Amino acid sequence: MKALLLLLLALALPAHAEGDAPGDFGYYVVALSWSPTWCALTGDARRHDQCDARHAHGFILHGLWPQFETGYPSDCRSPQRDPSRAETAAMADIMGSGGLAWHQWKKHGRCTGLTADAYFATARRAYGAIRLPGVLQSLNRRLTLPARAVEDAFIAANPALPRDAVTVTCKAGMIQEVRVCLTKDLSPRRCGKDVIRDCRLTGAVMEPVR
Question: What share of the chain is helix, strand, coil (3-state, %, to 5)?
């Protein structure tokens, strides 16, 4: 009887399609990953090319993420064709690898409603619109600093950015990412309440650019 009741309840619930509807979102988050942190925690152990010293990566583009005011769409079913390997590889200069570009398209890019080439072009414009603080991009020694100092550096380098459009995340006691919130036309805007939560560490580690 209990099993029958559960079955009837399940049948009464509305069906949900897999993924969200492409193009249905409110704003973008530009996620800028501090590459030396990812390398220290993950990439070095994998001997990932992103972490090779010849690249000297500082902040790279983790992704351009469509957001709702709370939460975000992901893994949308899109009628747009997937990018070619050449198209994803072409993003490695700012994303560290073609593999990351493919993952970002699959999880987030399809949800924008854009074609793959338009999504990557928009991601590149968004990345280029944010001035990366030179003092951090050329960091040559390990630093321990308040996470807020990283946010301050971005605000100083980008005076048009309101503070509530920038947030800093940490992982394992290290600076992980700077996330900048932009409208669909790539103008700064306040981050949603689930994005705006800053790392509050006063002694966060930043590994040097290699």
Answer: 40, 20, 45
